[in-house]
Design goal:
Layout: E1 3-7, E2 10-14, E3 21-22, E4 32-36, E5 46-48, H1 78-85, E6 89-93, E7 111-116, H2 120-132, E8 137-143, H3 147-158, E9 170-173, E10 184-187, H4 203-224, E11 230-233, H5 238-248, E12 258-260, H6 263-276, H7 283-286, E13 288-290, E14 298-300, H8 308-319, H9 321-326, H10 334-349, E15 354-360, E16 363-372, E17 375-378, H11 385-405
Parallel strand pairs: 2-4, 4-6, 7-8, 7-10, 8-9, 10-11, 11-12
Antiparallel strand pairs: 1-2, 1-3, 5-6, 13-14, 15-16, 16-17
Helix pairs in contact: 2-10, 4-5, 6-8, 6-10
């Protein structure tokens, strides 16, 4: 069914004819590219092939979170299956004009990270990156409209060190026009955060209008500079703001370049209650989180022994955890900045599984995933019907909100 092709020194395969020179895959081939065509408006440009089913399901949607049914392995040559198991197969969507630029697998190495805005979230995230990022972060550039904040955090962070070694990333101020001279840009700017006492409103949606106005400026700047790295969104609501970045970049940024960091803290909050109450303890080893940071979150107590009632109870606890912090008289930003922000960003750079929001058939939605040299891998699981119904509802709600508020073309 598949033919092998060669382009320059790269080997690829496809069920379609793209006009490349046909060839035979050499026995020592250590990477492979799967070439296909799918509507760019609803599909990523690249992703990591993680199962044989990926070669037969060319459209994107919420169904990609499930392990596909069917014996697809019988249809795929053994040499391809072996490379898929090693995550050495990268899917490339030829519907994108620049798809030939994707015939490369990025090396996992220390990356340069630039952080925008040093408010409560940005400064806490910066501290986490500084202390935890020694193996993943080469340097951290910081920018804020207040030069005093830049100076303060440059002093403070570079005077934070272990006593007899220099292993922590260096922190330095950058100019606005240098923000995208990096491998990952982290957007932490935010306006309109409701004060303590506004517990009756959906804080994320209150922030959306103002944060959209902020982020569109930086999406346009990233597009103007033809940014090739990851545009990381930490400000709320991350799923909608990711969609806004994609729209405002006018096709320059590709869907897989944009990631939203909000789900990590929801997982951490579910873990907190799973440790506190024994009935939810299965979450610690078997649970999963899906969806946005807030309303329509889906927490599954276990993917092996799913209990719908327990899962919905644990979801409610996780969603309302921020209200418990607000009752103490403080805004709940420390755990989000660390669990969703610094920790998840470091795991992203290390190519390890974490929680973040990624493009899935026109919608940005959170799930367990990792960024590999061969591309983005979103975890697939055996999905109980009750759990999948909840996830589909969340996906549909996010799709509706995106279409109403952003109108992706």
């Amino acid at each position: 069914m598949f033919n092998y092709y060669k382009y320059k020194d790269k080997y690829m395969f496809s069920a379609q004819d793209f006009g490349y020179e046909k060839t035979i895959l050499p026995a020592d081939a250590n990477e492979l590219y799967f070439l296909y065509k799918s509507d760019r408006n609803n599909s990523k440009r690249t992703y990591a092939v993680c199962s044989a089913a990926d070669l037969f399901t060319l459209g994107e949607g919420v169904e990609l979170l499930k392990i596909g049914t069917g014996d697809f392995e019988k249809e795929v040559p053994e040499e391809i299956l072996n490379l898929i198991c090693e995550r050495k197969v990268k899917a490339v969507n030829a519907d994108y004009d620049d798809y030939e630029q994707c015939f490369i697998m990025d090396e996992i190495k220390k990356k340069r990270v630039n952080v925008l805005a040093l408010g409560d979230v940005g400064s806490t995230l910066l501290t986490g990156l500084k202390l935890l990022g020694g193996n993943a972060v080469e340097s951290i550039g910081i920018y804020d409209r207040s030069q005093d904040k830049i100076n303060r955090w440059e002093y403070e962070m570079n005077q934070t060190a272990f006593p007899f070694e220099d292993s922590l990333p260096h922190v330095h101020g950058v100019e606005k026009n240098e923000l995208f001279d990096c491998d990952m840009f982290v957007f932490c700017a935010s306006k309109g955060v409701p004060p303590v006492g506004s517990e009756s409103v959906d804080v994320r949606m209150v922030q959306f209008e103002e944060n959209y106005k902020l982020i569109r400026e930086y999406a346009a700047q990233a597009a103007h500079e033809n940014f090739k790295g990851i545009f990381a969104v930490v400000s709320d609501p991350v799923d909608l703001l990711c969609a806004a970045v994609l729209k405002e970049s006018k096709g320059v940024l590709k869907p897989e370049q944009i990631k939203g960091y909000g789900l990590g803290v929801m997982n951490a909050r579910a873990m907190y209650y799973a440790k506190k109450y024994n009935e939810y303890s299965s979450y610690l080893s078997e649970g999963r989180a899906f969806g946005p940071h807030g309303n329509d979150l889906v927490i599954a107590n276990s993917i092996e022994n799913y209990d719908d009632k327990l899962s919905k109870e644990l979801t409610k606890l996780a969603v309302e955890a921020n209200l418990e912090v607000r009752k103490t008289g403080f805004k709940p930003y420390i755990a989000p900045a660390l669990s969703s922000g610094a920790i998840s960003i470091i795991l992203t750079l290390e190519g390890k599984f974490h929680y973040s929001s990624n493009f899935l058939g026109g919608v940005f939605m959170g799930a367990k995933n990792r960024n590999l040299p061969s591309g983005l891998e979103i975890e697939k699981i055996q999905m109980p019907d009750e759990l999948f119904a909840r996830i589909r509802h969340t996906y549909d709600e996010l799709s509706k909100i995106i279409n109403e508020k952003i109108k992706l073309d």
